[in-house]
Amino acid sequence: MDKTAIDLEQQLIARCIKGERAAQFELYTKYARRMLNVAHRIVRHEEDARDVLQEAFLKAFSNLKTYRHQASFQAWLKRIVINTAINQAKKKGLTIVDKPELLDRAHAEQRSEQRAQIKASVKQAHQALMQLPDGYRTILSLYLLEGYDHQEIAEILNISVSTSLSQYSRGKKKWLALIKKMNEYGQD
Amino acid sequence: MDKIEQFFHDHREGFDALPPKDSDWAAIQHKLDQPRGIVRRPYFYGIAAALLALVIIAGIFIFNPQTEQAQDVVGLEINNIFPDIALRNPDGQRIPISSMKGKVVLVEFWASYSMVCTERNCFYFKPLYKEFKDKGFEIYAISVDSSAVNWMDAIERDQLEWVQVADLSGQDSPLVQRFAIDQLPMTFLLDEEGRIIDKNVDASKLKSKLDQLFAYN
Question: Which pLDDT does position A116 carry in this prediction?
Answer without folding.
Answer: 58
